[in-house]
Design goal:
Layout: H1 5-19, H2 23-36, H3 46-59, H4 66-76, H5 86-101, H6 106-118, H7 129-138, H8 146-159, H9 165-180, H10 189-194, H11 196-211
Helix pairs in contact: 1-2, 3-4, 3-7, 4-5, 4-6, 4-7, 5-6, 9-11
Protein name: Metal-dependent phosphohydrolase
Organism: Streptomonospora nanhaiensis
Length: 221
């Protein structure tokens, strides 16, 4: 489901509040919105950006620098070609270049770049408050109601529509099991209290679907 008109306006306004209204910031904001709106995306879209920023608002009291986390969210999937690891690396490089261009303080630029990198594995170090918030915000969809989770999984499958079904099932299963085998999915106290149980139920149900011979639902390209 795409952003509605009101959400799109609010998303643009959120960038202006964060980065300011100068011409350089406006240009960077426009580039980011264009990137997140690329036609090949199905899940990593403006809606995902919007929902991840809203999750940061929920978790911001647990962050050390919530605005730095917000910068990281704007950039964390700015480069998205379905290449795990490399996409995050190039997104981090883009963050370093464009945040410096709009005059963000160098220490905050370095931290935002680091946080983008943390989203590659979603395993922040113990005591990394901002890493915990950016990871939990990015994965908050895992704890969504079942119907929203199903829409998320269908959109992810559509982004990998070029991947054969067997290969996709194997790769997706490995990702889910890796997350579930950790001591917890979420790293903030709010995430563990409010999203953890629902996320585990959603992911276990998805594993059952992946093991079934029934076709995986995916929206058309």
């Amino acid at each position: 489901m795409p952003l509605n008109e009101e959400e799109a306006v609010l998303l643009a306004a959120a960038w202006r509040r964060l980065a300011g209204g100068g011409p350089e910031a406006a240009a960077v904001g426009a580039e980011l919105l264009d990137r997140w709106n690329e036609p090949h995306r199905r899940y990593h879209t403006l809606l995902h950006l919007w929902e991840t920023l809203r999750a940061v608002d929920v978790l911001q009291e647990e962050a050390r620098d919530a605005d730095c986390v917000r910068y990281a969210v704007w950039f964390h999937d700015a480069v998205y070609e379905g290449r795990p690891g490399r996409d995050e690396e190039e997104s981090a490089e883009l963050a370093g270049r464009l945040l410096s261009l709009i005059g963000v303080e160098p220490g905050r630029v370095r931290e935002a770049v680091r946080l983008v990198g943390v989203t590659a594995a979603h395993r922040p170090e113990e005591g990394d408050a901002d890493g915990a918030v950016v990871c939990d915000a990015d994965l908050s969809v895992l704890g969504a109601p079942a119907d929203e989770y199903l829409a998320y999984t269908a959109a992810v499958r559509a982004e990998y529509r070029h991947v054969p079904d067997r290969v996709f099932r194997e790769g997706r299963t490995a990702v889910l099991r890796s997350l579930l085998n950790g001591p917890h999915l979420f790293h903030t106290s709010f995430g563990r209290e409010h999203w953890e149980a629902g996320a585990r139920a959603n992911m276990l149900a998805e594993l059952d679907r992946l093991a079934s011979p029934a076709p995986l639902d995916a929206p058309p390209p």
